Structure formats: C-alpha cells, structure tokens
Queue: 4 jobs
Job 1
Amino acid sequence: MTRSRHLSRQLVAARLLVGHRRSQGRDYGLALFLALVAGASNAGGFFALAQYTSHMTGYLSQIADNLVVGNLVVLVTAVLAIASFTTGAAISAVLVNWARERRKGKHFALPLAVQGTCLACFALAGAFTTETGRIFALAWLCGIMGMQNATITKISGARIRTTHATGMITDIGIESGRAIYGRLWPESGVKEDREKLRILVFLVGAYVLGGVVGATGYLVMGFYFALPLAALLLALSLPSLLRRTRPYQRR
C-alpha cells in the first residue's frame, strides 16, 4: 500500500510539472529538470559527434568563417545544424498548438514525450559509422535541442530558455552588476533581483551537472547514454498523456 501510494504521488507530481495550469514554481522546476537533460545531451553529444549541438552562435560563426576559406563540408554541416535546430523548435510549436486544440491539458506533455522518443532513437546512432551517418546523428540531436528549448520557452512565456546558457550567464552578470552598484551607491535605490539571480545560478548549475552526467554516460555507455535521458523525459510526460480526460460537453 505504501509503495502504491508513493508511486501515485510521483505520477501526480509529474502531471503537475507539465500540466497546463502553470505557476512560476512549476516553470522553474521543469526548467531545472530540462536544463540538466540539455546539459547531458549537449556534452554527451560532443563526445559522440565532436560537436556541441545547442551552440547556434558557434555554427553561425562557422558559416561566416568557412564562406571565406571555402570549406564547403564544414559550411554545409553548420547550415544543416542550424536548420535542424530551427525545425525542432518549429515542430515543438506545432505540437503544443495541436495538442492545445485537441488534447486539452496535455499540450506541454506531448512535445516532451516526442523529445524522449527522439532521444531513444538517437541512442541507435552508434550504428552509423560513416561520415554521412555522423552528420545525420548531429542534425537529429540539434533538432531535439531545438524542440526542448522551444518547449520550455512556450511553457514559461519566454522567461526561460534551457539550452541558451549565454543568455542566462549574461543575466547573472547584469544582476551581479546591479548588486555591486547598489552597494557602492545605496542612495541610488538600485537593487538586484535576488530570486531571479538564484534561479539563474541554479539553472546554470543544473546545465553543468547535466554536462558531467552526459560526458560520463557517453564514456561508460557510448551512444546508449541517451537512453536514461529519454526515460526521464518519458517518465515526466507519459503520466499526463495517458491520463484519461473527460470529453468536453456543450451546455
């Protein structure tokens, strides 16, 4: 009975975390979870493919650099990575809006379930030993990262982007600067947003911790490091997707 009750509480917690009724606390809780998964996917993907799959700024720089030097292979790879990330974000938006209309209350769980399934498929990428296969795996993982970033962006109302560490670190710097200014000139009334700063630090920490997990996972398991990450996303999303909802009745 105790074990059954504990499992029931876990299922309820998972449904609340991805439910359509949002709160700032739920947004941040989900963001921490997804930041850890994103960090693990990014770091594991680097060890597997020698490319960071969430670093779109770097790929834009690669396009510019390799246009100049004429390295078409790197140029095409960078374009493909950006296109895949963008496509993933677009798919996430389509899934959220489709589920909002047809699967009431499940429009955030659906894209997370799709991401989990895609990560599970990525675990099979080790079978692709050719250069073309490696580029395909890179595009696939970039698409997953784009989906995840877009999902948490829509959930949080654009307050949080879990794969966009540059923006989070920039905001940490801004709040730190406000704190310094406020202490040097207290009469100015400038103060840092301590809650925002705390959340940002936790998000960056979760991303780094996920990176350690992902890198270690790849060294131990190879491409199969993606399977535990896929299981986490599916465990978070499936309780909400599989829950029966009452059909809407017109009055």
Job 2
Amino acid sequence: MEIRGPLELPAQREDIELRTADGLTLVGELALPEGADPVATLVTLHPLPTAGGFMDSHILRKAAARLPALANLAVLRFNTRGTTSPRGTSEGAFDGGAAEQFDVAAAMEFVHERELPRPWLLGWSFGTELALKYGRDHDIAGVILLSPPLHRATDAEVAAWAQFDRPVVILVPEFDDYLRPEEARERFASIPHATLIAVDGGKHLWVGESQTRRVLTEIVAAVHPAALPLPTEWPAPR
C-alpha cells in the first residue's frame, strides 16, 4: 500500500506521562521501532496550542506513524502544559513559552531515564521557539526547526547557538505566514554552522502529502541519512 495520509506503520507505541519540576503531569506517547533498537530519538515540540497546535499536529503525528518503521527512529510526542489532544490534557496552563521550559526539561529527563539514543529536538512553529530558547540547556544531538516564526526567541537567544556545537537545521517554507527564506537567512546569520533549507512551494502548515514527504525526508537526512530514500510503499520493497 502507498504510504500517505494517516497511515500508521508498525511500531511499539506507549502512552507516557512526563512530570515537570514545577509539579505538573504532561501526557504523551513514545513510538519505538519494532524488533530493533532506535538509532536516534526525535523529541517533538508542537505548534502554538492557542492556535490549535498539539502533539497530534499532522507532521509530528506522521513522523511518529512512519519514522520508527522507515528510519529506525524513536519519536516522543507530548502536549505542553494546558494542551489537549485525543491522548488527554496536560496539567497546568499555557504560559506563552516561559514555564514551558519545564516541559522541555521533563521530556529530556524522560529521554535520559529511558536511555534513548541521540536525542534531537524537532520543533514546529511555536515549538521552534521552545527549542531555540531552551535546547542549549540539554544534552542534545542537534535541533531541527520547522517554520520558525521567531516571535518569542530573541536575537540574542538565536545568536547563542553559534557557541553550541550541535547541528541546527532550519526548514523555511517559501510562502510562510511569518518568516520567509530571505528574512530567515538574515535572522539566522548569527549561527554560522546553521543549515537553512528553503522549501519551494511550502507553507507554514506543510499541508499535502508532497510537503509531508519533503519535511520527513529532511528530518531523516539530518538525523539518520543512511535510511534514505524513504520508501513510499509498505511493506517497503527490498
């Protein structure tokens, strides 16, 4: 069958809870490859919850549905404080990206406790702000930013990544609603080792199977390039 839309490929899926340093319980899911140890881990940070973002925002849901099977990756998704999805509601209230630093820390502590390998922060929109603001506080293999709006992360917080020896991969849609490639190149110029990928025809929400495949391919290219090209059929042809 063709791999597209909501198709969920085989994986070990576990409902999890994260506990923050300020006493909240956050709900989430961990998806692991079946029958093999993961080679790396995606710690996903979802778009703005006050605009409908949550752990099931489609790119993150499809990453969890496909990449354990296609690229041998672990995928951790969770709702930040006060956010609701079919998985449930995380305790607390949206704090505009401030107290959410404890949510990021709780996810990274879970990764450490489970001994999940090579964690990459994968942020989308609001999630990129959390990654930029707080990712340097943690032992990560790198960071991937999808549609960064740069509304909350300051120029100083962006520039600080120049001193952080980890890959910074930035996917900027041609027709983004908030930050388009030309301006993004200027705003991220303070990180000499950043890789900025302008996606022709892309929009902020990455709607459509072609955009989904492009984003998932760029994620795997950064994290586990040996898994490319990603199959488009399941079972994958040998």
Job 3
Amino acid sequence: MTGNESARRHSRDDVAETALRILDDYGLPDLTMRRLAAALDVQPSALYWHFPNKQTLLAELADRIVGRAAVTPADVSWPDRVRAESAALRDALLAYRDGAEVVASTAALGLGAAPAQQRLEAAVRSGGFDAETAGRAATALLHFVLGHVSHEQQRMQFDSIGVLATGEAADPLDEGDSAAAFAFGVGLLVGGLQRLAPDGDASEGAGASRSRT
C-alpha cells in the first residue's frame, strides 16, 4: 500500500480524534506520531498527509479542546459573560488530560488556541472596552486560566501516583474548593476591569450606560 493510499484510509478528523483519545489515555508526553500511527494501523508517514508535523497536530487538538467549551448566552451582563467564558474554558481544558498544557504550548508558538483568546476578548468587548484594552484583558485572563488549570491537572496526576505533599507543605488549594479558588481569581481580574469600565460605569460597562440613554 502506498503512502497516499494509506492516508486515504483515515480522514483528518479521524487522525485528530484518535490523537485526542491517546492524549486522554496516556498524556501529552506519550502522544507520539508512532503511537498515533499504530492506533490507526498506518505507517507514521501516512499521518503527514493530514498534518505536516506534530506541532500542527497539537494546534488542531488545542482548537478542538477549546471549541468544545460551552457557549455563553449573549444577553448576560459583560462581567458575568467574562466569568462564564473563563469557567467554560476551564471545564473544556479539564475534560482532557494535559488539556491546559496542549493549549498553552500551541498558544506560545502562535499555532493554536486563538479561539480561546477571541472568545475572552469578545466577552470583554461586550462591555464597551476598546480593542487594545480588550485584547490585553483577554490575554491576562487566558494566562490565568491556563496556569490555574495546568496546576490543577498536575496536582491530579501527582495525586494519582501518590506523590503529593502532606501537612504544612501541602498546596493551599488542597484546603478548599479549586473551582472556588478559580472563580476568585477570575473575579479579581473582572473587578480590575470594572474600575476601567467606559463612562465610569463600574458594574456593567458601556453597554449598561448606553441602555439608560
């Protein structure tokens, strides 16, 4: 069987979805092109008909992970929309083993995760903020979400193999609800944005200000 014929046995979607399953089962370090090819019963070279290298495959996985985040209603206030988008992104990342690492690494390379930035930016802009402020705020939010979830996922992996610290050296997140800690951090960022809200409206931003005119 030629490389072309082997590649045609599976679509680009087949390859990406199989890669996601391997990611979830084995983690990012063990998501290799050789393992992926074996799972699809093709030669590793056949994968490159769909993805020229592993980086572009990971970028596709990052976009798929983010793309499965729940959609936030557009009719909520902008602070609630920012909070909801952040929580939806967290849930999507947690749904896959090493999800945060996949998205963070591809974002750092400028190859993937653009939908995450765009959704957060749109949520901020719904408050009437200018494009520059919205972009910077979305970047700060994205960095917080990725960092927080990456920490959560590392803790879960360490817990699964019994190597977590105990006693006074234990992580503070162990003493409370991680979701609550996440919401608190997002709330701090949203609170800072509310102080910068257009037209001096610290609760709903320019959208609410316009609705009263």
Job 4
Amino acid sequence: MAAPTSDTGEARQRDAERTRAEILEVATLEFADKGYAGARVDEIAARTSTTKRMIYYYFGGKEQLYLAALENAYSVIRGIEGEVDVDHLDPVSAIRRLAELTFDHHESHPNFLRLVSIENIHRAEHLTKSDLLPRLADPAVDVLGRILERGRAAGQFRDDVDALDVHMVISSFCVFRTANRYTFQAIFQRDMLDPARRDHYRRMLGDLVIDFLTAR
C-alpha cells in the first residue's frame, strides 16, 4: 500500500484546523450564552459537524474547551493591538486611534465581553491556568507604553500614569457600553449601542482619554 503523500497529509491538517476552528466558534457562542456551568459539550457537538468524542480528542474536556475559547477571544483583540500601526501618528492621535480600535472591537465582539464577565464570576480560576496568560497582556501594554513615552518626551502627557492606567480607562468605557447595554436601557431608556449615538460615544471616549492624559 502506498504511503500517504504530503498533499494528503496537508489536506488532513487543513481539515483538522477547520474542525478545531468550527468547534471553537460554536463553543464560544455556547459558553457566552449559557456560561461555563450551563454549557453542554453534547450541544456543542450537535451544532458542529463533529462528535463529542472528537471534541474531547481535540481539546481534552469541557474545561479545556472553555479555556481555549477564552484564550482565542483574548488573542483576537491582542493581535489587533499588537499589529496596529500608530508609530507614524503624533502621541495624541495615536492614543485616540488605539481607544477607537478598542471601541470598535468590543462593539463588534459582544461574546468576548460575555466570556470575560463569566470568567470574572469564576474569579479567573480557568484563565490563571492558561499557558498563554503571560502573553495576553503584552500587546496592549507595549503599544500604550510606547505612545506614552513619546507623549511625555514631547511634554504633552502627564507623567504620573502608566500604560495599565490608560488601558483601564479605555476598557472601562468600552466594556460598560456593551456589557451593560440592557440594564442601562431598562433603567434610563437609552440604548448605548444605538447607531445614531455611535459617533458621539466614539469621540467621547477619545476626548476622555486625551483630557485625562493632558490634565495638569
């Protein structure tokens, strides 16, 4: 019997990658919708073109699948932050651009925020087991750090805040706007994701961060 060709091996690898990606996509929706405790691997298998046995083969178990979905969700925003080109912009414009990028991502990835909220309910007990954890913070901190250094050198930014301070300010606005959408609307009758208000809130975020950094 002839040995498998390299093309056959590559095809199998592509199929495995597609299957794994499909499982992750469906698992993300399931965990985001029902939480870690409520999600069922049987349901995830039923909504994919694979089986429960194959899910365990690829990921090991429910906890490992949940952690993989969480890692993947974080990796998307960290990848965007790591690749964003702001070094050609002046510090003020660069900070605004990064804030807008986070605004856009969080608005278009509500399941990311649901997963983060669920993991906070679990006190990050799963995330702290991640081998990727040390790398999940680097892109955001590195990019912000470079911008802050340039802004301080130019005499534009205050020197008593660090990259994590700024990251917290940006994330607070973006997370609140999306994660608290329904309770805020129920109490105040205002939909924070109303398209008519989007540009206003996007500018508001940039203004808040710039005013914070340039305050004396």
